[in-house]
Design brief:
Pfam family, one: Acetyltransf_1
Largest sheet: 5 strands, mixed
GO molecular function: acyltransferase activity
Number of helices: 4
CATH topology: Aminopeptidase
Distance between the termini: 43 Å
Oligomer: single chain
Strand content: 25-35%
Structural class: alpha+beta
Protein name: GNAT family N-acetyltransferase
InterPro entries: Acyl_CoA_acyltransferase, Bact_Acetyltransf, GNAT_dom
EC number: 2.3.-.-
Helix content: 25-40%
Number of domains: 1
Length: 145
């Protein structure tokens, strides 16, 4: 049985395994201390939200999201990270995580939920194309550090 819920303090170890998997997929490195800092920001409330997908009680997927102002509307919700353990893919966890974030956005009355993925992320895009449509935009990132 699939359950979606906020991250819980005892999810820390499995969350980090999945977060490291996400970062490895995107060829991004984060210092060890960065995982602890991010965990604290997610678990202590505030502007960042973290949820988990659980199959039979085991965390198999995570999503991180935030709300922000938008010049042309009443705000937006950004699904920053979404990652499901490879062994659990195809069982509905990714879709359920997206649906939970969408529900949170509806509760906040923001009219837009969006996210990014790599162009070559075919497996994720197969799901995303079922949930919504590709809008043709390309994302650019300018690192400032």
């Amino acid at each position: 049985m699939l359950e979606i819920s906020p991250l819980r303090p005892w999810d820390r170890v499995k969350w980090e395994v999945l977060a490291r998997g996400y970062m490895a997929f995107y060829e991004t490195t984060v210092p060890d201390a960065g995982y602890e800092e991010t965990w604290q920001r997610l678990i202590n409330g505030g502007e960042l939200y973290g949820i988990a997908a659980r199959l039979e009680g085991e965390v198999v997927g995570i999503a991180h999201y935030l709300f922000h102002a938008n010049v042309w509307s009443a705000g937006a919700c950004y699904l920053q990270d979404l990652f499901v353990d490879e062994a659990a893919r195809g069982q509905g966890a990714g879709r359920a995580l997206i649906e939970q974030v969408a529900e949170a956005a509806r509760e906040r009355a923001v009219p837009r939920l969006y996210w990014h993925t790599r162009q070559d992320n075919a497996q994720a895009r197969a799901l995303y194309d079922k949930v919504t449509h590709y809008n043709g935009f390309i994302s650019y990132v300018l690192p400032l550090d």
